[in-house]
Amino acid sequence: MIKVAVIQPLGIPEEEVMKIAQAKLGDSAEVVYYGEVSADPAVQIERAKGADVVLSTNIKLTDEAIKGFDKCRMLDIAFTGVDHVDLDACREREIMVCNCAGYSTACVSDLAFGMVISLMRNLPQCDSAVRNGGTMAGLVGNELEGKRFGIIGTGAIGCRVAKIADAFGCEVVAYSRTVKDIPYIKYMSLDEVMATSDIISLHMPNNSETKGMISAEKIALMKKNAILINLARGPVLDSQALADALNEERIAGACIDVYEMEPPIPQDHPLLNSKNTVVTPHVAFASKEAMVKRANIAFENIAAFIEGKPQNIIK
Which positions of the chain have pLDDT values less than 50? Predict the structure, then answer.
């Protein structure tokens, strides 16, 4: 029997986690669960002591922590991105890393449209107007139909966003490393997407190729009426350049869920002080349904590992 240490809470009640673990693993594993978040490597090491499989979330895992996982053979990340994990340390210790790709596809896509509609239809201002005896004066917004909706990165989430945009009556264009044969998506260069889209939604991972991809130069290509959505990763975007473009009214608005750091975000962060910006605290991945989905995928990963048929392998 192997030992599984769930070193960070999974966002659903412990009883539910253990019920899912039992359903997926049966008697093939002993599961230990910790219900409080800790970013302290020493705490993480203590929690992972003696575990063959360490299950964690989006909490940073440093070289120090990973090298202290004494018996770990598999690191199961209950998240899509793994840029918060020191993969070099995992390679050095020959630890397999798996993720939970797919659990947040629906909820991230939902939030992209919730945020952009909120911005385009002035929903916060409308709410305030009604509560303070106001009217619709100055609050006439814009609709999605007929807009060119640009998507950067057509993985699972990008493709779902494209499908929803098409349903809204948008013209969908995209730039991606991998071109897919989807009838309602027209692929073009990154510069073309940036320069011609009314709405641009980012859905690429954060890695050496994408870090800083949406630079001041790329933002300068955007139309004056354009809106930028970032529900991907903070480092793919130059926050100061975007804030400058917003404050100088060179673009129309932004919807931001991710930053260079995890919330709480410093009050002097440029995107907390820019015009026409809707911000959320890295919550796109977090719906009640998604938390259940990711727990299921996480324990399916472990079951597959035990059976010698690992899935969702990152490295």
Answer: none
